[in-house]
Specification:
There is one protein chain. Helix content is 66%, strand content 0%. By secondary structure, it is mainly α. The protein is elongated, with a radius of gyration of 22 Å.
Length: 121
């Protein structure tokens, strides 16, 4: 299959995808040549984006800080919610220590953080 080789090529393909997307709708027959082209171009873009714009799993410390900010918790309030000491939470947020299994479970559950992030899998 053809590959996107430059940022300019990527932008041109994205513009073409926009054209096709807005020129078709749910009633467009599945075998319409525009939809077939859209499928091919989308696959090329996906491959290019995975290589040039990868999305990495966020770190546990940055995710905890984001949740603290979203919910307007102080570090002391969050430590109390999780049932751990403020210094221990500070070490976890600072990346100096990793949470125990029980702490990881509570962080995941109480802050609604994906276990993959909590356990850094």
């Amino acid at each position: 299959m053809a590959q996107i080789k430059s940022q300019e090529h990527y932008k041109a393909i994205m513009a073409r995808i926009d054209e096709i997307f807005f020129a078709t709708d749910e009633s467009t027959p599945k075998n319409d040549k525009r939809l077939l082209e859209l499928d091919v171009l989308s696959s090329m873009v996906e491959e290019y984006e995975q290589e040039h714009f990868p999305i990495h799993t966020p770190s546990l410390p940055s995710t905890i800080v984001a949740r603290m900010n979203e919910r307007n918790y102080t570090q002391k309030e969050l430590a109390a919610l999780l049932g751990i000491s403020a210094p221990r939470l500070c070490d976890i947020i600072g990346g100096k220590k990793t949470p125990t299994y029980e702490q990881a479970r509570l962080i995941s559950k109480k802050l609604d953080i994906d276990p993959v992030i909590v356990l850094s899998l």
